[in-house]
Amino acid sequence: MNILFEQLPILEQTKKALQELNFIEATPIQALVIPEIIQGHDVIGQAQTGTGKTFAFGIPIIEKIDYKLSKTQSLILCPTRELTLQVYEELKKLLRYYPQIRIAVVFGGESYTKQFRALESKPHLIIATPGRVIDHIERGKIDLSALKILTLDEADEMLKMGFQEALETILKQIPEERQTVLFSATLPPSIKQIASKYQKNTKILQVPVKKLAVNAIEQYYFLVKEFDKNKLLVRLLDLKRDYSTILFANTKKDVDEITSFLQDKGFLADAVHGDLKQNQRQYVMNNFRKGKIKILIATDVAARGIDISDIKMVVNYDLPHEDEVYVHRIGRTGRAGKKGLAYSFISPRKFSQLKKLEYYLKEKVKFLEIPSVEEIKKQILENFEQKVIDIIEKNSQENANNPMIEKLLQKFSSEQIIQGLLTNIQPKAKNYTDIIPPRMTFTPRETFNNNSFGNRRFGEKRFQNPKFSSYNSYNSYNSYNSYSQKRNDFIEATINLGKKDNINPTVLIRLLKDEYQIYGKNIGNIKHLTHETIFEIPSRFWNQMKNKSDIRFQNKILVINKKE
Q1: Number of Cβ atoms within 10 Å of the Cβ of 144
Q2: CATH no. for 217-370
Q3: Residue 545: pLDDT band with limits 50, 70, 90
């Protein structure tokens, strides 16, 4: 049964503000939490982003403030500046009939002078990130001695981001007789530890978790070697050149490197991540909204609070570490009844993670071949042709009496004029770097069916070399490689580096490339033993290996022998 805000024990000013905002029904988390916080209980609310949790804690917080007392009575802590601003914007909507309540927002990356002014006004409510709160407390700018209610929004994210020590510091600065409210998407042991230490008679209020709908989003993946991802990215973005795109990477370093790479290639791209100051972030976001940049590269944390309805495509440069984060990522496209596209770049070593994700989604992410140069060129020409048609149809009458047309027609034929114009404005073909698809021991299209969700192993169709039949996926590169060369052309070789030398397939492949000019595509099975490693190579490479001497690895002279 749906609960109306009219039925909740909230003040008339709040009800009036909600009515004007066209909020009639409370969401499940709001209906559960608001009465409990109003009654003064310590609460843990388990709710996902987009469930109305900001109003769930915001409404009772505002109603508990005594505006006649010019001291900070409520503190809301958020993990990121983006979420801090988002909470602030939401609560401002509720304050239209509470003009006496003063509110301040403080976070890292913004001018201290501006924040000092806001804090000097003795705000009743502060919304902040943990680090900046501690900073202002130490400077004597924030006084929490009269605090009545502390709220931790996205508490699990704060702990993941390493804020536990900061939270403990803040919790020790505030009165023991206070109300503490935690909101979290998950309830890991760390959240329960915080609750047991700093809450009293905690009420845990949960609503059933609903997976975000992804049925309006077409999901695809490419199999690509890690070092070929940038090459693939150029091809994909050229294929979808006019699409507004968010590209997700897992680290700030990757975001910066990808952004620099794309800008060097002439793409309209820019980045947002946690190291940007707020004015820099706002500048980038405004340019993205206006279409001045087409590609936004972001970390998951920095993307919180981005609310743009017309994003056509999401690209996962890497899969996120958590399946739920993937759903939130791709949920930024396919909004407002529109179709969305989501592409993920999967390296062979991450293929099992994709299978796990499909199990979580209960649906298939479709495999795509890497776009060919011919396919891209054809698409670019089709897009250009459509643009020309649109321009002609839009301006057919506007330039009807343009004297230049008559002058040109006196000197040239229509065909010559068109050819001359197209020569100068038609997009020029790029020289794309070759991408060699990874060789898998299975065909990607064959690795998934509706009955495979419970399987732990994928790709059972493996090449079986009797000499290597006992190798498992941890000791053998066979899990990720198959070979187009004829098998009888391969030989087995040994090298005097083994597990005790911390050798692994990646290190060995790099070593063979750097010292013997043998590339990974030519290397077969690899097996690491304690003191040596057995590997396969085509016989034609043996002479160039045996003729090299005095090659060292970690001060150890390498000895390579051919197995008979």
Answers
A1: 18
A2: 3.40.50.300
A3: confident
